[in-house]
Amino acid sequence: MTDKLTVSVLGTGIMGAAMARNIARAGHTVRAWNRTRAKAEPLTADGVTVADTPAEAVRGADVVLTMVHDGPAVLDALREAVPGLSPGTAWVQSTTAGIEATADLAAFAREHGLVFFDAPVLGTRQPAEAGQLTVLAAGPVEHRDAVNPVLDAVGARTVWTGEDGAAGTATRLKLVANSWVIAATAATGEVLALSKALDVDPDSFFELIAGGPLDMGYLRAKAGLVLEDRLTPAQFGVATAAKDARLIVEAGRSNGVRLDVAAASAERLERAAAQGHADEDMAAAYFASFDENA
Fold it and tell me: Could you tell me if residue 59 is left (phi over 0), alpha (psi between -120 and 50 degrees) or otherwise beta?
């Protein structure tokens, strides 16, 4: 196997586009596809070839990487890619798809002879663009050399969670991590909303907790996006966060756990999306505390 690979990236949103660029910058040949081609076109400036169809994108690829909205979208793309897929191709599935969908995708991989890696990532736009994501991955040890150059190109480190991608161990860890991220973001928005309602300067709150156990960089970062009106371009969009929150709630319910905070956060995010903030950073869930006309 050569050091340089041909990599197909299906999905060029916030994360997928950044990942495609970094894979190309690492010296690999990259072909990208996106449902809306115009969103993929800017990648040509980075040496990425934009394909018209998933089948065209994956033909002859050593590694296929999927980063679309959700599990059904992944399955739709791979079904369209079937004419170009070859048995033995490594599939790095990085979409946050949920536990049940990951099992379905693994079944599709078995049916078509693909080597399946459950490989969601932790990080938002900025670390994605810098190639500093954390990759959570599960897949067969004997095939990891085939995908490690791709994982190294997009991430600062890879955390291996198991040898069977179909078990969804990486996805399970991702859902646990995202449950904290979403809860912390919701709490940040409510702190700012309550401060506004009670005529409290948010800076007085930040000064109160400064340097103590209640202080954290993530709180200040997300609050800053709201207070400084920097919600676009999104680091992690409202609509995507709402989808992830629902996956978390469903995962808990399926395993006998009631996740009230995640459920409430999903409702807040969905409300913010309905108010017109779907494409803004997830911190825009702040607006769900107010009437949409406020």
Answer: beta
Q: Are 105 and 97 in contact (CB under 8 A)?
A: yes
Q: What is the pLDDT of residues 157-175, one digit of tens each?
A: 999 999 999 999 999 999 9
Q: What is the DSSP letter of 293?
A: T
SS3 state of residue 188: helix
Q: Which residues pair with 136 in a beta bridge?
A: 159
**Rounded Cα distance, 232 and 237, in Å:** 9
- The C-alpha atoms of residue 209 and residue 230 are separated, in whole angstroms, by 23
| CA–CA dist 143, 125 (Å, integer) | 29
Residues pairing with 133 in the sheet? 155
What are the structural domains of the chain?
6-166 (3.40.50.720), 172-289 (1.10.1040.10)
190-231 pLDDT, tens digit per residue, is 999 999 999 999 999 999 999 999 999 999 999 999 999 999
- pTM of structure: 0.95
| Residues sharing a CB contact under 8 Å with residue 93, sequence separation 6 or more, in sequence order | 66, 74, 102, 105, 116, 117, 118, 119, 165
CB-neighbour burial class of residue 216 (10 A; exposed 0-12, middle 13-18, buried 19+): exposed
- What token pair was written down for 101? 């969908």
Q: Which of 280, 185, 265, 200 is nearest to 235 (CA)?
A: 280
Residue 40 near residue 68, CB atoms below 8 Å: no
Helices (H), the chain: 14-25, 37-40, 54-58, 71-81, 99-111, 125-129, 144-154, 169-197, 202-209, 217-227, 238-254, 260-272
The DSSP secondary-structure symbol of 49 reads E
Which residues are 158's β-sheet partners?
Answer: 135
CA–CA distance, 278 with 294 (Å, rounded to integer): 18
